[in-house]
Amino acid sequence: MKILILTMTAGEGHNIIARTLSKKFESMNIENKIYNILESNPWKYKVNSQGYLLCYKFIPHFYSMIWTYFKKKNYKDITKGVFINEFKAADKANKAVIDEYKPDAIVCTNNYASGLVCYLKRKNLISKDIKLFTLLTDYLPHPYWEYSKLCDYILTPDMYSFQQLVDKGFCPENMNKDTAKIIPLGFAINEKFYRPIESKQEMRKKLGLQDKFTVMLIGGGFGIGKNAKLVKHFLKHKLDIQIISVGSKNAKNVKKVSKLIKKYKATNVANYGYVDEIVDVMDASDCIVSRGGCSTLNEAIARQLPIITRENLRINEKENALYLQQLGITIKMKHFRSLHKIISDLQKHPEKLERMRQNCANFTQKDSTQKICDFIIEHSK
Prior knowledge:
Shape: elongated
Number of strands: 13
Structural class: alpha/beta
Largest sheet: 7 strands, parallel
Radius of gyration: 21 Å
Strand order of the largest sheet: 2-1-3-4-5-7-6
CATH architecture of the largest domain: 3-Layer(aba) Sandwich
Mean pLDDT: 87
Oligomer: single chain
């Protein structure tokens, strides 16, 4: 069996999920390949990646407005609409990749990728016998999901997105309709996040940290979150806490945090860039301050780590954060200046933290990556 995993550069979460699935398939002796659907066009690859990042960072309100407009638009006729020209422009290169690899199944970690494959199927440019699976990588569907109606299965984190997908033309697994079936199987994260949770005291000792209330700051895969601003806020308020700042790929922010440590002569701040063993850092922490990307959120939830979501979240992040807040897993920070009050309250009321940890434990679907891969293999035969 051969599985082609299609991803895209708009956000690091799609790529993380693709690598997670690929690694799991490899452990099951399933041949697979990851391919970015924009790889054949370097100019478009760069524009998509950098353009998305710039819009996300510098014109978030415009980004949210466009995102909301197209999500509400819901193209009933999937042979028309703004994406069709995009699909036409990308069809030859991606058809060539599919024809050369000859997969039994295609797994998409981005709905643009699945829309493109559905277009190829509808135009009879690739075999309709290739099974097509698409993962919903947030808790609610993005714009243009209706273009993925010719998928065989839509794999969702849980049932929360169910009605919105039904409104876009999908159907439950037990309904005999000629459209993609919705299957809730959990969120695909690296299986190391499901290993037994270590003692915070032991993990802090292992990492060379102080044994005190610890707050982890992370800005997502691209390091968009401005950790330096939060570190400065904490240092000004002189809270009796330990801070772990994970800057990820944002080297500039890591340097800013380093300068703050020197300026304030801080001995309670650990400053990291990209961290391979992020599980260890999570296990050493009492809570995490994060953006609303689903990969980081679900990794933290699997480690039973209470989450404080950042201010100024983008529209899809807001939807994720609101849903998890309703489940008692996250606390929404309205403005970064309120962060010290939130942390102080959690320090004074450890029962709140414990309740959030328990809510994480109740929400976590263990072995979800295994279940997703098992389902794909079983339904590709």
